[in-house]
Amino acid sequence: MRIFDNALLYNPVSGTWIPSSFSVENGKIKSVGAPGSLSGHLVFDLEGARVIPGLIDAHVHIESSLLTPAEFGRLVLPHGVTTVIADPHEIANVAGTAGIDFMLSDAKNSPADIFFMVPSCVPATPADVGGAVVSAADLACYVGNPQVLGLGEMMNVPGVLFGDAEVSAKLALFRRVDGHAPGLSGEPLCEYVSRGIASDHECTTAEEAEEKLRLGQIIFLREGDAAKNVAALTPAVTQATASRCCFATDDRHVDSIAEEGSIDNCIRTAVSAGMPLELALRLATLSAAEYYALSDRGLIAPGRVADFCILEEGETFSVSRVYKNGLAVQKKGIVETAEVSFPPFVCRLPTEEEMQLPNGKLKIIETIPGEIITECRIGSAGDSGVQKILCVDRYRGEGFGLGLINGLGIERGALATSVSHDAHNIIAAGATDAEILQAVCAVADAGGGMAVVCNGKTTLLPLPAGGLMTFKPYEDVISEMHVLNEALAETGADKKAFMSLSFMALTVVPHLKITPRGLFDGDAFCDVDIQG
Amino acid sequence: MRIFDNALLYNPVSGTWIPSSFSVENGKIKSVGAPGSLSGHLVFDLEGARVIPGLIDAHVHIESSLLTPAEFGRLVLPHGVTTVIADPHEIANVAGTAGIDFMLSDAKNSPADIFFMVPSCVPATPADVGGAVVSAADLACYVGNPQVLGLGEMMNVPGVLFGDAEVSAKLALFRRVDGHAPGLSGEPLCEYVSRGIASDHECTTAEEAEEKLRLGQIIFLREGDAAKNVAALTPAVTQATASRCCFATDDRHVDSIAEEGSIDNCIRTAVSAGMPLELALRLATLSAAEYYALSDRGLIAPGRVADFCILEEGETFSVSRVYKNGLAVQKKGIVETAEVSFPPFVCRLPTEEEMQLPNGKLKIIETIPGEIITECRIGSAGDSGVQKILCVDRYRGEGFGLGLINGLGIERGALATSVSHDAHNIIAAGATDAEILQAVCAVADAGGGMAVVCNGKTTLLPLPAGGLMTFKPYEDVISEMHVLNEALAETGADKKAFMSLSFMALTVVPHLKITPRGLFDGDAFCDVDIQG
């Protein structure tokens, strides 16, 4: 038994810092008492350092980090994140339940604990040409699985509101259902909530969060790479509501986690926005444990897992050392990740003739910096800054959609990626037809990845795990990303061009998008012709 | 669909009163919005009246009310208590799982929802000669029963601390376990908590509650007939801890519920002690629902059961009208209670000679007003105020224990009752041997009850349901209690003499008690001779 003495222990129940001593045995907290009150063989004097329970990420798509679950765990753990609740929505769109099973299996090798909410909306919409359809019947096998805590974000709001049979069957399977209803309010929100959808992580204003809290939803304050809502939602978090709010990262790349952090970054952001640290820590620990009924964590208390963090001294919140199951985390530890074979890419690429567009006025996808919605403008292929965009079916080789895009900033060369929400076909854009096709070929030949073709050179970050993730250690991936970003810079493209590109096939977001069938009107929710 | 418009709605998430309109359909809340924002066929204008969610009693032994579950529900419902979590510990000591099954079955007829925590300690101690032993194997059939939420108060603290196999087997059966560890603190408390025992309702000081809260336990603030702790614990309830505190009544008689209330009385008591009403209401609604994972209640929000109360105007908290499943509660409604046959009483009564005590110095049970602990004093049978006390085995006719008691105040006549914690044998005391035996006979012949014999007249309140409860409507029971209390007054006894008497066989409480085997030393935990 080891004693950690003279800790200034954060208690999320009282919301206070209490001078304490605590003991650890067999990976669990054994006792907590006043400083000097416990005796044992090995005593570590923490000399008054602040100690907090391990942090919990209430909702994340691990695939967005480009890492496998085990490697993701190794990355976030030194940031104090000891428990992760993941929704394997992306890989399920690629590989169905086989993808989900890979995530559950690989998560067992993670040094941080990873639980799952199984994806509710695969495909995201009937308009998506993905790799799989996951039905309620397919999900039934996950009920009672100890790694699975419920049903992941229910994005099919109309399906909920109009009582779609398949949606209802999925809702009926699980006792806990996460929500996804950006901007929903009033009676439609009431109807949505009444179906037992317990949480929401899509709030963008404090008013939206306050309404959803009042109606009984648990609110996850999200700080991801694309969507950053923590500061805006901070006014909704009070002493009263803190027990019903959590933090989530949703989507973060490997490099931004490494540079800015994970839930620790949420805490820093919230504190900067005016949230007392003691409230922010409640969200990041016990509140998330309570929502997911993880009664064995969230608090440094007897019988709970010995997951805790020692904080750096000073004003800014920063995790110094992390203990998982009572053991100090070695940042350089190696994780065993089994390399699994995913189905090969099956693509039919356009010929030179098929890359030609009609003359005259055409619809152009107009990107908006920092947003995933787009505008539709009418112009011609020769307009300044306008380039071709290509979306290639990777699952059945059934074809491709061709269009025009403006705003990526590509001056020369081309980009292609198999990370392309939510169906994850190959999406590409560039200055010349040849370079576009070369980039697509590089991605397809590698069984997935992100490619830049520029000045005759191809730079590839391979993503062999379903075209979404790599099996490599995160340090290597960060190096590869730097190389890729240098190549990207040579094209003149915006730094976030890959992220922008990856959302151009997301049919649920307005206004003009692209699928392997061609252009898609996100408002009318139907395919449209390119003629303007 | 009915609309309740212009309500001043208490929201336990925000802890605030919000002008609102809400609609009810099929017994559930459909929508909640701003006043005037909802439309429907039937609109009730609440004219700004305060509305709160239905109250929840987190822990009660229904048997102590003398009423069956269905009738108990009818009694507490007009007090705003729409959900009750009951531990059928008393009837299980009498009749084992048959007693538990009776409670579960009868509860289905209750107009208030009654859930159960199955009793963990039957018998309470090996020293108790009760009607049943309930093992872990016996309890296994309740796992997964939708009426059962977990394991009831684990009173066997030594059994927990020393890893008793049967105790461990019971703990392993259920995910949620209520605690009972009065005064436990420091490392023994840590050990107790580490076994997953999630709540405590035995705190008597704010410091004790604060320690248990810090260690992760949920604290029930109890206001029963015997133990009244709400005022003392009020300082432990803060904005931070309120989500982890609830109210409980534990043990209340039918007449005190009718006169003072149930959880509504807890709220009034807490507010008098300085707790803001908004915090007290959090405890009485959402906090209890959260602890028991009753996600369909605790809050007036879409999809949840339409259990709510309209409050009286004015400063004092008082429930005016109650709605259960959307329907107005009719106070005079009749409840269907099936009369069930319990095993007959099998007693062997002492003969005239066996009622004789030895001469010389004898041990006397000295009662302390308002307490259930006793002192042992040495004296003789002829001392002023000292009377005989008799405890008769009602299960096997194996005998009786005879002793002396002081402090009940009986001047003439005798009392007997089959409510006698926790084994519920017949216990009696009185001025003459003949009257004591007459009172015992009256109770035994009726198959249980409370009897007063005085001036040649026998007054009986029959308790045919296991000797603990009556099948009658609560109004009749209150009338009968008034008659019984008048008879009690004739004996000169203290008003609380029946309650005091009913705890004289409780072996877990120090110092001198009585069982059908004779006197019992609650400190040494063994039978003792009456010789002083």
Walk me through the structure.
The structure is a homodimer of 532-residue chains. Chain A is α/β, with parallel strands linked by helices. Helix content of chain A is 25%, strand content 27%. The first copy, chain A, has 14 helices and 27 strands. In chain A, helix 1 links the parallel strand 6 (55-60) and strand 7. The radius of gyration of chain A is 24 Å and the shape is globular. The model of chain A has no long low-confidence stretch (mean pLDDT 95). The A-B interface holds A 11, 13-16, 18, 28-33, 37-38, 175, 186-187, 190-191, 193-196, 198, 210, 213-216, 238-244, 282, 290, 293, 295, 299, 301-304 and B 11, 13-16, 18, 28-33, 37-38, 186-187, 190-191, 193-196, 198, 210, 213-216, 238-244, 282, 290, 293, 295, 299, 301-304.
Short description:
Chain A is an alpha/beta fold and 532 residues long.
Layout of strands and helices, then pairs:
Two copies of one chain form a homodimer.
Chain A: E1 2-11, E2 16-25, E3 28-33, E4 42-45, E5 50-53, E6 55-60, H1 69-76, E7 81-86, H2 89-107, E8 113-118, H3 136-139, E9 148-154, H4 157-161, H5 165-173, E10 177-179, H6 186-194, E11 199-200, H7 206-214, E12 218-222, H8 230-233, E13 245-248, H9 254-260, H10 263-272, H11 277-291, E14 308-311, E15 319-324, E16 327-328, E17 362-367, E18 374-379, E19 386-392, E20 400-406, E21 414-417, E22 426-430, H12 433-445, E23 449-454, E24 457-462, H13 474-490, H14 497-502, E25 512-515, E26 518-521, E27 526-527
Parallel strand pairs in A: 1-4, 1-5, 6-7, 7-8, 8-9, 9-10, 11-12, 12-13, 17-20
Antiparallel strand pairs in A: 1-2, 2-3, 5-14, 14-15, 15-16, 17-18, 19-20, 19-22, 21-22, 21-23, 23-24, 25-26, 26-27
